[in-house]
Amino acid sequence: MTSSTPPLIEDLARKFATKLLLKGELDLSERRLQYLLDHAYLEKVTSIKSSLNFHQCIRCFNRNQSLFGKIPRQNNTPIIYCKHCIQMNRVSSEEPLYRWVGPPPMRHRVKNPMKWKGELTPLQVKASYEMIKAIQHEAKLLIYAVCGAGKTEMLYAGIEHAIQEGKRVCIATPRSDVVRELAPRLRRDFPTIHSAALYGSSTEKDLNNHLVIATTHQLLRYEDSFDVMVIDEVDAFPYHRDQTLPKAVERAMKQDATKIFLTATPRTKQKVQIALNQLPTVSIPSRYHGHPIPVPTFKSIFRLSKTLENETVPPSINQWIHQKSTSNRRFLLFVPTIELAEKLSAKLTIPHVHAESPDREYKIKQYRARNIEALITTTILERGVTFPSIDVAVIQADHHVFDEAALIQIAGRAGRSAHDPTGDVTFFYEYKTNAMVQARNYTIIKNKEARG
Amino acid sequence: MICYLCLKSIKEETVWANFLSPQFRYTCDDCLNQLEEIPPPFCKHCKKQASPNHQKCDDCKRWANHFGEDPLDQNISIFTYNEFMKEMMARFKYRGDYEAVYSFREPLNKAYTTHFAKKHYTLVPIPLSDDRYETRKFNQAEALASLLKKPIHTQLLKREDTTKQAKRTRTERVLSKNPFHLTNHPPEKILLIDDIYTTGTTLRQVASLLKNAGVKNVKALTLIRS
């Protein structure tokens, strides 16, 4: 703590420290930027490393050569830029990143930051205890908990402990919908700390806050920043598929940071690590309300894909929808493709959302507020989001986008509320797939484990 | 092979017709389908959409009143400014993904051949101010013009730094001071190239400057009419 740091520098340190930022993101006047560079408060970092025409993006770790572009210049070699992270504005051979090398910023300590008064189940208590232990020992921990086990509440004790110790915590999750859902909950339960919710279109700023809730992509802007990193849904698509994101997460953490992984459906890689005892694990097979997870019902429909192609809705699906609306049950219909979502939406006059729909935030809000009774969705609502008391159906559950993890997650959307712990999960399909059977077996096994 | 607009990989099926000479493509079918050519009816003068069969739309009449005689003889645009195009322009211009421009090579060349080929126009891309060029590292109009593989004249005009057109209202744009000035003697027939025609103010600022300097014919080719 350097009390002699002038206030302006302290402000800048809060904004820039432990980040790798573009000139535009610094938002400084030319003169001030030059001053900070000259007096060793900021330094330039080459953003594209090139050797023998092989390029590498320092910000996003991209090494796929087809994702580097060239801007031609007169009488000069072309500028090389990275397309992989262009969504966060351009880094190029002419546009360096900036790193804060001035005095580190201060962060005030908060005593008893948590104001949550709820009660934890014994299993949640166990997970909380393990997490605190992991933070104390700067170790890693996998919390393997079924959907609806109350993962967020399990983190509370750990987050509280870390913040009291003056540590900086990040919760990284693959989807912005999850950030938007988590942030208000955490703010309600930790009202006195500084937090920032970061995703593509958010306008919040992280000024060296106690807690950052961010989509995984946002971590590309960080370096040596967090003491505790909670990685939600490690098995989920962007983190699992995109090789560069795990590297970004590693860089965003301080050297001996604690890593907490959360998942309901570990991938083979994590399963192997668990089996070899390389990854300390707490397993939570039951939901917080103690009721079993709904077991999916299979309904086969002859020539389902053909029927849907002809833009007709099979009678059994119609019947399911009709039954739900007459008994006043709210539901989600999962479909494999955006195209089908749009078609069905027009046919059934039920609103739809998908990754590219512009009003998705609004529709999800409306659904959450119970202004909409039903919603057709692609896999974007597969995980992380909680709507109490709903039923779900998967149309074309045999489609390849619905792998085991996706189906388990979808089934996990039902019966989330303690007042209404049962829910109906129905898979409509044409050909039974392994993924469907494994998903059903998973729920049966977990329910058995939970009964002890 | 990746699509230069959405960056997803393009999987070309190998069939007898193409197995000997695989075709290189810049754009995937999904993206091509989302580019929307301006459907008729449109204004013959500026390509504004849905003006019924009149020769000129109300905007063009207003311009004619404003100048006495419209300095811009014609504007040809290709695409509408739909949601997809807005997203693409944001990526191309504001985030600076230069290579997205290659996806417009074919449509731009087609429009050029249909309307302007063999008519001896000199291609003049609308310049950027030095400041803007310094941050963007390229001029989007020049990038588009260079797709035509014709000599382009870049030493004719200069632009002073002003607020972005996109951040101004219509009235502010129409009443704004002309930020351009000539730096060379202009040829007789000029085809201005720009990315987007919104109110037509920029193009007319340049066109009136050129007409005053004695240019006979000024037309414009723009990628988008919004």
A few lines on this structure:
The complex is a heterodimer of chains A (452) and B (226). With 452 residues, chain A is α/β, with parallel strands linked by helices. Chain A contains 15 helices and 20 strands.
Overview of this structure, please?
- The complex is a heterodimer of chains A (452) and B (226).
- With 452 residues, chain A is α/β, with parallel strands linked by helices.
- In chain A, 34% of the residues lie in helices and 21% in strands.
- Chain A has 15 helices and 20 strands.
- In chain A, the strands form 5 sheets. In chain A, strands 10-11-9-12-13-8-14 form a 7-stranded parallel beta sheet. A 6-stranded parallel beta sheet of chain A has the order 15-20-19-16-18-17, with helices on both faces.
- Chain A starts with 6 loop residues before the first helix and ends with a helix.
- The model of chain A has no long low-confidence stretch (mean pLDDT 91).
- Chain B contains 8 helices and 6 strands, in the order H-H-E-H-H-E-H-H-E-H-E-E-H-E.
- In chain B, the strands form 2 sheets. In chain B, strands 1-6-5-2 form a 4-stranded parallel beta sheet, with helices on both faces. A two-stranded antiparallel sheet of chain B has the order 3-4.
- The longest helix of chain B is centred in the middle third of the chain and has 12 residues, at 83-94.
- Chain B starts with 28 loop residues before the first helix and ends with a strand.
- The model of chain B has no long low-confidence stretch (mean pLDDT 88).
- Classes of the chains: A alpha/beta (452), B alpha/beta (226).
- The A-B interface holds A 24, 66-67, 69-72, 79, 81, 83-84, 86-87, 89-90, 92, 94-95, 358 and B 1-2, 7, 83, 91, 95-99, 135, 137-138, 146.
